[in-house]
Amino acid sequence: MRIRPLLAVLSTALVGALGVTSAASASPPSPNIIGGGTVSSAPWAAAVLSNGSFTCSGSVIAAQWVLTARHCINGTMSVRIGSVNRTSGGVTRTVSATYTRSDLALMRLSTSVSTSTVTLANSNPPINSTNSIYGWGMTCYSGCSASTQLKTATVRVTSNSVTDAYGGQAIRSTRINGNAWRGDSGGPQFYNGQQVGVASTADGSSIQNYGSVAYNRAWITSVAGV
C-alpha cells in the first residue's frame, strides 16, 4: 500500500500523515493505533489539540515542553496531559510557542506541569528490535473516529534510514500486533524505555515512519534544554 501523508499530500511516496483532521472528513484522520491494546496509565502522554479539537498525540519531555510532530501544528495549540482519556481528566495547558525541525515540533507550555517525563534516546533502535508505539489515533483504516483511550502496540524496526514527512531521518517499522494511523501523529515510539521516534507517516496497514529523536537530539537540547 502506498504511504500517504495523513494531513495533506506531501509526496506520492509517503504514507499519510498521522494527525486527525475532522470526524466529518472524507479521508481518515492521521494515525490512531489499529490493533494493539489500551493503556491504563501514562502520565507523560499528551493529547494535542488544535483550535480546541483533538488532532495529534505527543509526549511530555520536560515540565514545560511537549514533543509532537511538525505537521500537527496549526492554529491555536493546547494539550491535555496526565490522562489516558483524551477528552477528560488530567490538566490542560495552552501552548505559548512552537519550534520545528524535520517533522518534529517542540511546544512550550504556558505554565509548567507536574508529571513524569519521557527519557529521550541518543541513538536509533537496532534493526529488528521490538518497539512500542502510543497514540489516540483511529482504530480502523476508515469509517471510525480517533480512540478516546490511549492505545499502544508493538512494532518491529526495519530501517533507520528512511525519511519523515519533511525529509528528516526516520525510523521505519512494521506491524507486530498493531500499527499507527491518523491521530497517532506526534506520538512516541519507545525502545528499551527511551523515546526513539515521533510518529510522522504511515500506510494504515503495516508500515509506519517515525521521525528520529537521535537525529534531532542536539536541536531538542538547544531549544528545550533536555
Automatic annotation (TrEMBL):
Any one GO molecular function term: hydrolase activity
Entry EC no(s): 3.4.21.-
Domain Peptidase S1 as annotated: residue spans: 33-225
PROSITE patterns the UniProt entry points to: TRYPSIN_DOM (PS50240)
InterPro entries hit by this protein: Peptidase_S1, Peptidase_S1_PA, Peptidase_S1_PA_chymotrypsin, Peptidase_S1A, Trypsin_dom
SMART domains: Tryp_SPc (SM00020)
Keywords noted in UniProt: Disulfide bond, Hydrolase, Signal
Enzyme class: hydrolase
Signal peptide: 1-26
Pfam families reported in the protein's UniProt record: Trypsin
SUPFAM superfamilies: Trypsin-like serine proteases
Family in the record: Belongs to the peptidase S1 family.
Protein name (database record): Trypsin-like serine protease
Taxonomic source organism: Micromonospora trifolii
